[in-house]
Design a protein that fits this description.
114 residues; mainly alpha; elongated
């Protein structure tokens, strides 16, 4: 049986749902069945990436000054990466999930895949 024999299977295709990362996010209550809780996932992921760096730089004494050429809290590049780019990547995950079903349907309708 091919995917064209069962149209319901083609609409269930997802690159995001069902993988190991998705299962971890579900167990941590950071997502639901349809990738909801986006703000919570953005906040937790950004903090998991940024907060340890803040703690380590504070322990080292380079958070606001010290021996570092650019103190951690004054380094704009780091903050843009962790507090700007990570949310964009998480939002793009949702966009890919929503648009992939349409793309797969087009491939099936045009008989490009079987």
């Amino acid at each position: 049986m091919t995917m064209t024999d069962n149209p319901a299977k083609s609409t269930d295709f997802s690159l995001v749902l069902g993988g190991p990362l998705y299962q971890i996010l579900r167990r941590a209550h950071l997502t639901g069945d349809a990738l909801e809780l986006l703000k919570r996932r953005i906040l937790v992921t950004s903090m998991l990436a940024w907060f340890p760096l803040l703690v380590l730089s504070a322990l080292e004494g380079t958070a606001l000054g010290g021996t570092a050429a650019v103190p951690f809290l004054l380094d704009v590049e780091v903050h843009v990466k962790f507090l700007g780019v990570i949310p964009l990547l998480i939002i793009s995950e949702l966009v890919v999930h929503q648009r992939m079903r349409f793309a797969v349907k087009q491939f099936l309708d045009r008989n490009l895949i079987v």
